[in-house]
């Protein structure tokens, strides 16, 4: 290709930043050393671009893909990819990557934080002290011991494994449910979530949201978990039948819950606001500056591998 | 043994009260309108005292109970008991170690996570209906933070084991080095504070450790540092702590204990970088019962002239 003497040939591969107006890709300026970027499906470059970065929960649908006839790679910026039409990508031969392990520690930390808070009433106790009630009321209700609890992990992927590792140090036992049993894992496996719930004191939901896992935590599972049982959700809101969960909590049919995600964010069922055995969080299990750095590295690594025809770093695996 | 009179100093546990009433002649200190009244009626019959972190057995009480043989504390901490006087008079003392170690360590971890990840603040944010108006901000990653522990006995060690599972490098300051651990030892507390991001107080309260966390230590920990206290309120110079937090010289604090419980400095109530709990380190159903059982077993062993289970003196 002929170039003028004073022009430097731009060898940077072209990448689409696919984002909803309200979502920006953190650290985007770091990418331009490696890639040429554009961000509109209406741009003429849409017809030739081979890779896109999907920012946050921006949907990637069949319609999106229709605008991108040369696309061969979708790079997700989260662990969850329920906003990407994975079946459609598979049909068109488009590979999909997620954030791999970049956020796993943060999410695992947060799951344990929520569990400790629910069992030992950290937020409720903090409210109690701040309200000035301690001198008046003296004693405060007892919490529940974490040590010895049977933890049931729903989805033993990167996040679930980090959760398990942490809780074992607290003297808990761990069992899990995943799509398939993992031969290298020593924790007991249950083929379905109901059986896991029967044998657990706490369920921690860490799996991906797909058609199969929608409402995987339903009335049947909550009943099996029981009055003394607790549930922590750091996956996606729709993994849990939220209406049922609210009923169970309001009626005292379950011990308590720690929830970072909801079916209709940012809306949270108001019945939960009056409960002391519930801890609520606005979907920020990954929200630390370190997680954005780590995420950036994963995104760049996946794109570089793709353009060099090397194996991808974090192709999406369903657990 | 219902001819044996036992004094319970404060309403620490319904379960324990019932067990004591069933086995002994129970006298409850808080049901008397005055000390004089209490001493007039009971001083010569009481052979055992069951105390806790609020009211133990100080010199005045011990001196006024000539028949006292044993103090069985519903706590592991002994700062409310005049141990020297007990030793002089041949009075036995027992406490409740081990059964509460895990629960107290769990609260320390709960506080560390709650302060760094702003869990309570987030919960408030959601309950106030603020989420639809905009996202919460970033918080700091907990895994990998450097944790410094003051006092590496049972509780300190249990905290270290848990924090290690989060990839936190562990360092400590203790009366003596513990070479059997892999943790980094600092022979003075300022060096420990300089070299960690989260400082946890887990030692016993003695004359030496009173206000061990003073202005110098707080300044060494610094504006990004976090202080966690699951020991005793008097480990920390509380007014210094409050001003450091108000002035931004300390990054945050998680406190389960205070110098003058149940009073808590009100200036803390408006701060988002603190988490406050009402001395609940060992307060789970399971542990409360286990502690009560240990108190009872120690008393029974003593009066049956058998070896005490968890003697201190």
Automatic annotation (TrEMBL), chain B:
Would you indicate the residue range of the signal peptide?
none
EC no.?
1.1.1.79
- Any GO molecular function: NAD binding
Organism of provenance: Quercus lobata
Official protein name in the record: glyoxylate reductase (NADP(+))
Q: Entry's Pfam families?
A: 2-Hacid_dh (PF00389), 2-Hacid_dh_C (PF02826)
Residues in D-isomer specific 2-hydroxyacid dehydrogenase NAD-binding domain copies: 109-281
Reply yes or no: does the keyword Secreted apply.
Answer: no
Gene that produces this protein: LOC115992938
Starting at the broadest rank, the lineage of the source organism is: Eukaryota, Viridiplantae, Streptophyta, Embryophyta, Tracheophyta
Domain D-isomer specific 2-hydroxyacid dehydrogenase catalytic: from-to ranges = 6-312
């Amino acid at each position: 290709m002929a170039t003028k003497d004073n022009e430097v040939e731009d060898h940077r591969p072209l990448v689409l930043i696919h984002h909803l107006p309200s979502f920006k890709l953190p650290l985007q300026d770091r990418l331009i050393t490696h890639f040429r970027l554009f961000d509109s499906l209406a741009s003429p470059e849409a017809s030739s671009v081979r890779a896109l970065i999907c920012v946050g929960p921006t949907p990637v649908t069949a319609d999106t893909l229709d605008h991108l006839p040369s696309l061969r790679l979708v790079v997700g910026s989260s662990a969850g990819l329920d906003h990407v039409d994975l079946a459609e990508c598979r049909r068109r031969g488009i590979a999909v990557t997620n954030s791999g392990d970049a956020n796993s520690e943060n999410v695992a930390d947060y799951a344990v934080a929520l569990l400790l808070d629910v069992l030992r009433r950290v937020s409720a106790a903090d409210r109690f002290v701040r309200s000035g009630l301690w001198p008046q009321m003296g004693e405060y209700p007892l919490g529940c011991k974490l040590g010895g609890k049977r933890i049931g992990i729903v989805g033993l992927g990167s996040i679930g494994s980090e959760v398990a590792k942490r809780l074992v140090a607290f003297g808990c036992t761990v069992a899990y449910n995943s799509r398939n049993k993992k031969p290298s894992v020593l924790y007991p496996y249950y083929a379905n979530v109901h059986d896991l719930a029967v044998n657990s004191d706490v369920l921690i939901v860490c799996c991906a949201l797909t058609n199969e896992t929608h409402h995987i935590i339903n009335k049947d599972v909550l009943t099996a978990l029981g009055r003394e049982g607790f549930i922590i959700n750091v996956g996606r809101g729709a993994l849990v039948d939220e209406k049922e969960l609210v009923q169970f909590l309001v009626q005292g049919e379950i011990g308590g819950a720690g929830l970072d995600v909801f079916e209709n964010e940012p809306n949270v069922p108001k019945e939960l606001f009056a409960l002391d055995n519930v801890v609520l969080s606005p979907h920020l299990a990954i929200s630390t500056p370190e997680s954005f750095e780590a995420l950036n590295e994963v995104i760049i690594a996946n794109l570089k591998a793709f353009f060099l025809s090397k194996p991808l770093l974090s192709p999406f695996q369903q657990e | 043994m219902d001819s044996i009179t036992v004094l319970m100093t404060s309403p620490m546990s319904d379960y324990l009260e019932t067990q004591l009433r069933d086995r002994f002649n129970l006298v409850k200190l808080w049901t008397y309108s005055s000390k004089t009244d209490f001493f007039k009626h009971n001083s010569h019959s009481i052979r055992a005292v069951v105390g806790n972190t609020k009211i133990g057995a100080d010199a005045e009480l011990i001196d006024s109970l000539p028949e006292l043989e044993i103090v069985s504390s519903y706590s592991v901490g002994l700062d409310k008991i005049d141990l020297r006087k007990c030793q002089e008079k041949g009075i036995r003392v027992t406490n409740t170690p081990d059964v509460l170690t895990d629960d107290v360590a769990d609260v320390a971890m709960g506080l560390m996570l709650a302060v760094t990840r702003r869990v309570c603040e987030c919960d408030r944010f959601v309950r106030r209906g603020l989420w639809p108006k905009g996202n919460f901000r970033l918080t700091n990653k907990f895994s990998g933070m450097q944790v410094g522990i003051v006092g590496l006995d049972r509780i300190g060690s249990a905290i270290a084991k848990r924090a290690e599972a989060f990839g936190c490098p562990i360092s400590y300051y203790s009366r003596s080095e513990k070479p059997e651990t892999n943790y980094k030892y600092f022979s003075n507390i300022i060096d420990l504070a300089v070299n960690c991001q989260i400082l946890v107080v887990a030692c016993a309260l003695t004359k030496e450790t009173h206000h061990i966390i003073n202005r110098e230590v707080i300044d060494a920990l610094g504006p990004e540092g976090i202080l966690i206290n699951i020991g005793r309120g008097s480990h920390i110079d509380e007014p210094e702590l409050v001003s450091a937090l108000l002035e931004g010289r300390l990054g945050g604090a998680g406190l389960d204990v205070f110098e003058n419980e149940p009073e808590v400095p009100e200036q803390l109530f408006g701060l988002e970088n603190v988490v406050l709990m009402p001395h609940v380190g060992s307060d789970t159903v399971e542990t409360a019962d286990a502690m009560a059982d240990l108190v009872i077993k120690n008393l029974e062993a003593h009066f049956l002239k058998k070896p005490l289970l968890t003697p201190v003196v």
